[in-house]
Amino acid sequence: MIQQRTNMDWMLTELVDGVPQVRHVIVLSADGLRMAQHGTDLDTADRLAAACAGLQSLAAAVGHEFPGGDGRMRLVVIEVSGGFFYLMAAGSRAYLAVLADEGVDAGLVGQRMRDLVARIGDHLTTPARTDGPTA
């Protein structure tokens, strides 16, 4: 598991280095647990991961309102004073979150996030949590 996180860290660094004005990159599970981060401390990454779980749940609820939709969240973009927040589905039960400054190239962020997910999406899959140990 440690080796996987180390490998993931360099991939996240590549996203930050390749897009000027990206501040934080976080990989999280669907239930809001931080799996990896770059550009932020652990406490901030954990708070953002928990908030992302709520956001993806809200997006899924809205998604069910579309005819024929399955409610799965693919991408959420939020513009706030000072910057942008992106949350993208990145594998089964895994998400990629990016915080960027106001002047960021929004199209470039989306493209690089899609590229990263396409390259490592299978490695970002998290298993569903169970209630207890299995025999």
TrEMBL record:
Superkingdom of origin: Bacteria
Pfam families (UniProt xref): Robl_LC7
Roadblock/LAMTOR2 domain mapped to chain residues: 9-100
Cross-referenced InterPro entries: Mycobact_SerProt_Inhib_Rv3364c, Roadblock/LAMTOR2_dom
Identification of the protein by name: Roadblock/LC7 domain-containing protein
Organism: Kitasatospora terrestris
